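tool=predict chain=A
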Amino acid sequence: MPSLNTSLPSPVTFSLMGIPGLEHLHVWIGIPFCSMYVVAVVGNMTILAMVKAERSLHEPMFFFLCMLSVTDLVLSTSTLPRMLCLFWLGARDIAFDACLAQMFFIHSFTAMESGFFLAMAVDRYVAICHPLRHATILTHTHITIMGIIVVVRGVAFFSPHPILLKLLPYCRTRIIAHTYCEFMAVVKLACMDTGAIKHYSLSVASIIASCDVIFTAISYAFILHSVFYLPSREASFKALGTCGSHVCVILVFYSTAGFSMFTHRFGKNVPAHIHIFIANMYLLVPPFLNPIVYGVRTKKIREHVLGALRVKVA
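tool=predict ok
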């Protein structure tokens, strides 16, 4: 895209570059990305179908898992199909309004993903540390309120992003050095001082992530403390295995998202292709892993899925 010498408040299109320096590998990179997306869609849809069909799964843990699955589906679908068009078809141009919409879904649903990880950690804490009060603490009303708070938080804090970008003048190149419309990549194209806007975005993301990480860590610390005092060693190992797999997924999400966030602020010397590749990971890996860790490793869901498959095969 050629640079423009005059400022325009709203450009017609942007052009996505992809992963700078790895353009010759786009076709090959798209193959594992597409595979992960297919697993994410099939896995999360299966979880939603199982929980809806089986009344025995109408428990707090599975309600939160459904919320996480919906978030994963929106997060991955808002990025992967468009990314694959870039990798495989060379479709670089994206309409300005479509770019802003994608940006809103990415950032708001990333915040929701973090919030639902925290909600699920709280559920596990109550179930393990206060099992006799689990049903009275996490009632359907409380679960609904927690879900609404997570959604409203994500929407409220990240709605200003597309609005602010809509108001900015653009006079530089329209090429976004990224695989999707990421806020910091787009705001760099504005031809005015955007320091305050960048600080707002990074501050909001840092506050939300920090609070969620701290409370999630506290929940799992209490869980581990209780697990070590379980009377049965077999029960302790089982609980540790379950919590360990959950913690691994959470660490993947926060480590990749945190790397991307702090690179914008401090990592000026990080190569662009490494930054962008890892920025894709927190949008792809958790939706891919969540159905496996929270679904396949959950005995009730695994049994219902296998039972449904046996019926269909028969």
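Residues 1-7 have pLDDT under 50 and may be disordered. The two ends are 57 Å apart (CA to CA).
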